[in-house]
TrEMBL record:
Residues 596-615, 726-750 are annotated as: Disordered. One of its GO terms (molecular function) is secondary active sulfate transmembrane transporter activity. It is a multi-pass membrane protein. It is found in: Membrane. The chain crosses the membrane at residues 85-110, 116-132, 139-158, 170-192, 199-218, 251-268, 288-306, 345-364, 385-405, 417-437, 463-484. PROSITE patterns: SLC26A, STAS. InterPro entries: S04_transporter_CS, SLC26A/SulP_dom, SLC26A/SulP_fam, STAS_dom, STAS_dom_sf. Residues 563-685 form the STAS domain. NCBIfam families: sulP (TIGR00815). Residues 733-745 have a biased composition (Polar residues). This is STAS domain-containing protein. It comes from Akanthomyces muscarius. One of its GO terms (cellular component) is membrane. The keyword Transmembrane applies.
Amino acid sequence: MSKNARTKLTKAVLGIDTNARYAHQPKDLEERARAVLGSATAYIEEEPTVAEWLRELVPTRAGVAHYLRTLFPPLFWIPRYNCRWLLGDAVAGITIGLVVVPQAMAYAVLANLTPAYGLYTSFTGAVLYWVFGSSKDIVIGTTAVGSLLVGQVVNRVQEQPGTDFDAQEIAHTLGLLCGGIFFFFGLFRLGWIIEFIPYIPISAFVTAASVTIISTQIPTTLGITGINGQAPPYRVLIDTARLLPTAKLDAAIGLSSIVLLFAIREFCSHMESRQPAHKRAWKFASSLRLTFTILLFTLISFLVHGRGPQISPKFRIVGHIERGFQKIGVPRPKMSLIQMVLPELPAVAIILIIEHIAIAKAMGRLYNYSINPSQEIVALGGANLLSPFMGGYVCTGSFGASAVLSNAGVRTPLAGVFSALVLVLALYALTGVFFYIPKAALSGLIIHAVCNLITPPKSLYKYWQLSPLELLIWVACVAMAIFMSLDYSIYLGIGLSIALLLVGIARAKGGFVGVARSQRVPREAEDAAAGIATTSMATKDVFLQFDRRDSSNPAILLESPYPGVFVYRVHDSYTYINQALHVDILQSHLMENTKRTSDEEYEHESDRPWNDPGPRDKLLSQHLPYLRALVLDFAAVNNIDITTIQGLIDLRNLLDRYAAPDTVEWHFANVQNRWTRKALATAGFGYPTCQNPEALAKWKPLYSIAPISDTPFSAHLGHHRRPFASTIDEENQTPPSFSQSTTPGGTREHTTISAVDRPFFHLDLYDAVDAAVRDARCKDTDGSI
């Protein structure tokens, strides 16, 4: 069916005239352009269609093949694997394995699980990440914050009446749900969604979680019992202070382990600066301080308690740990348990994914490689899906372990396999040693590790310098976590950040701009004195805000482009959220700085509408110009919606009544999005209206032309091509010479840069203002109204 037939059928059946939107568009725009351009060709803009948009969504064969390859990043580097890489990965993997073992055991305690579950979890992340991961420096395993969240979910589910689920079952269900969500987001390449979550709420949450972890571990470090660790941190600290007289021998173990850990770290840091040649060795020694401390206090515990089937502990120890992967199996979560866990899922998922992507991006920036956020989410999803089958719980990237891995000289993600071997060795050969680990020493290790996660004062001062309001959000989030709960903290932070974003968009004012004549000063005064022509001596028009709220020199002289021509710059997005503000600013400014073309006459004054104050005093308005044109700079605008279009239409109608019998010209600069151009053209913008035939006959279009490329699209990117675009106008009817741009066969053909059927959509603000001023000057010269 032809296009005309479809149009007639649509009109007959549905009553929709698809050509009605072009009712006010002049029919001869293309003919007038061809008459002026001469040998240059006229470009007609092709509007985007829904079918075209749908075709862009259909993956190509090459795109599918690329997608499948990117699902398995090792395909890109495994063929080049060599012995030197193997040696580096082995050293780094074994090193990180020694670091992860005590960390994993300690963090499992935060999740209300036995230390063995931390080893199961870290093994899963280590053995699987290299298959899907895109970073060589990431260590997926247990983390303090993730384990704390699991522990809180376990407690909340178990506190519900009639609940008989154990901590292992709850942790496995949470891991499966998180893994499924991550895997879905990663496979469908939805990693961009995490960009909606800003940095400040996450920073506040990590700090608040660190404070919460420290408050819950202090009683264990001191050997104090009878404290509700699930209470808000301020309550836990108060109860701990009240029960200090009941501290036991565990306090000696816990406090001395904390002191020893910090002492080793500071000593190694001092030696790094004293001995730069051995900096890597001292970093390596510092990274093993956790392992050394745990082994030392395990030895002390063994010497104190001795060997035997029955011992009387002098302080609390870890006790029996099952050998090997005793909890391996297929998890079977119950629907009732899933329903209980689901409300807790958003906070846990958000924190795990943000923590992981933040580490991956930081490592990529540090070592000059890029990561794929969506692929990282696939790796995270795979690890969390597999973890419950191995007996573990949720896992994510670890800040501390990743830093140790990168400093150990890792070469590829395959280093995780070597750290997994260390974890297997620990599970099968060292469980007897783990029996004697003091719980106070594990708590001391946790406190030492999370102290590094607290945001330092210098960072808070930087937040204050960058954005004071975001610092207030940070403080509110931390306060909420300390006095309420961590879940409320992350929700509050995200909610306040989104509210701040929306308020900023809603109140983002535009500004009217004026013209300043600028000239670049030559670098060599002698060249200027000698009269040597350089581009630096050229003058050009620059457009600056009249209210001088930009960073330009306020002493610069600004002038209006032309009486009755106004230029308005949109500083931010232009959407339904802020369109009313822009319309109000435009309407009030235009009417205050112009006069009516003709006064509205009423037979009786009482016929005047109640909201019309009547004509202004002619003595006060006689010096004001008539409203001729409005130029909108849409450089900051990408998408536009129906509400915004309707606001522009209403304003246009109001201004046309104000300027009647003349019509106000609307010029748009820097409208790049094709759908935005289509929406504006559908609403009657982008071309002169044919409602005023006399004015339309006198209108003289302006066209910019440029040479046609021999090859399409981006073949000439990066090459400077001369000459620059030429300009043809209908007034002189004389196309410029094209002899400057030639090919081996003769003169190169030229074409218009912009569509001739959208002459009021301009390439840049200079062209838009130039066209508006020329048309306004023409009206004044011809004596048009």
